[in-house]
Amino acid sequence: MGLVIDLSAIVANWKTLAAKAEGARAAAVVKADAYGLGAERVAPALYAAGARDFFVALASEGRVLRPLLPEDARIFVLSGHMEGADLNGLIPLLNSPEQFFRDRALRPKGAFGIQLDSGMNRLGFEPGEWAAIRAEALAASPALIMSHLACADEPDHPANTQQLAAFRAMTDGTGVPRSLSATGGILLGPDYHFDLVRPGIGLYGGEPFGEARPVVTLALPVIQTREVQPGESVGYGYSWTATRPSRVATVAAGYADGLARALAREGRLQLWAADRAVPVIGRISMDLITVDVTGLAEVPPALEILNARQGVDDLAALSGTIGYEILTSLGRRYERTWL
Ligand SMILES: *Cc1c(COP(=O)(O)O)cnc(C)c1O
C-alpha cells in the first residue's frame, strides 16, 4: 500500500541510458527530491551502481545530499551561484557574468562549471557574454561546460540541430568536458552526447524514454465501501448518479496528494484491482476519491492508480500535463517504500 519506489528499476534505467551514451559519463539528475521519489534514497543507490555525477536545481538540495554521498561524487547545482547560497562541497553551474564574478570573488579556489545558452533563453551565458569572459573562465579550469536542449523530446524539431551547432561554436577547442543532453538528447544519438549526459525523467520511468522500466506503484487504501441505489448521487456537485444498483469504494487520496481534479474531468480515470480496471466516479476531493467497484467480486484493501498498466504518462494525458509534473506532485502523505 502507498507509494512503492523500485530502486532497482531506477538503477536499470540509468544503466540502459548510460549504455546508449557509451563513451560519455552518465550523471543522474536528482533535483526536486529525485522527481518526487526521494533523492536521499535514489542518489546513494545510483552511486552504488556507478554514478559519480549528480545534478540538483538548488544549493539547498545539494546540501541535503552532500553528507549522503562519498567525496568522489560531484554534485552540480543548476541554478549556479545565487546570492547567499552555501556551496561548500558543491559545484555551481555559473550561468551569467554576474554569477561568475560573484563566485570567483567569494570562492576563488572553488570548483565550478559554466552553463551556456544555446537557444532556450532560460539560463546560461549568451554567446557575447561568454566570449567576453571565456579566457578568464577557462584559465580557472571549469569542471564542465553545459547547455540544455529545449525540444529534445521532438527528434525532428529544427531547434535540436541549431542548438547543437550553437553549443559547438561556443565550446569547440576549450578542452573542458562538455554536456548538452538530458534524457531526450541521449535518444537523439551520439552527436548529442559529448562527455557527460544528464538523464532525469528517463531514470524515473517517464517519456520520452519509452523503454524505461516502470518505477512507481501507487496503491490507495480503501476506507469504506457502500451500496448506492439507482438515482442516488456521489460526491461534490452530485456529478455522478447511479443508473443501477452500485457498489462504491472511497479511497484515501485526493488533489492534496497531487491527484489533480482534472484527472477525472472526462470520466476516463481508472484505478486497478490487480488486473481489473474500475472507473473513478464523481469529483476528486481534497483527500478522497470515489470508485465504482460494482464489477469486482471482492474489493481489495487498496486500489492502484499507478502501476505497470497505468504509468505517469497515462495519468498526465488525462489531465493535460506531462509525466514530470505527475511525479513531482506526488503527495507527502503517501507512505513511501523503497524496494
Ligand atoms: C531537469 C534537467 C535535466 C534532466 O532532464 P530530463 O528531461 O528529466 O532528463 C537535465 N539538465 C537540465 C539543465 C535540467 O534542467
From TrEMBL:
Origin superkingdom: Bacteria
Active site: K31 (proton acceptor), Y236 (proton acceptor)
Pathway: Amino-acid biosynthesis; D-alanine biosynthesis; D-alanine from L-alanine: step 1/1
Catalytic activity: L-alanine = D-alanine
CDD domains: PLPDE_III_AR
Name of the top EC class for this enzyme: isomerase
UniProt-listed SUPFAM superfamilies: Alanine racemase C-terminal domain-like, PLP-binding barrel
Cofactors required: pyridoxal 5'-phosphate
A GO BP entry: D-alanine biosynthetic process
Molecular function GO terms recorded: alanine racemase activity; pyridoxal phosphate binding
Pfam family for this entry, one: Ala_racemase_C
The protein's name: Alanine racemase
Organism: Paracoccus kondratievae
Taxonomic lineage: Bacteria, Pseudomonadati, Pseudomonadota, Alphaproteobacteria, Rhodobacterales
Gene expressing this chain: alr
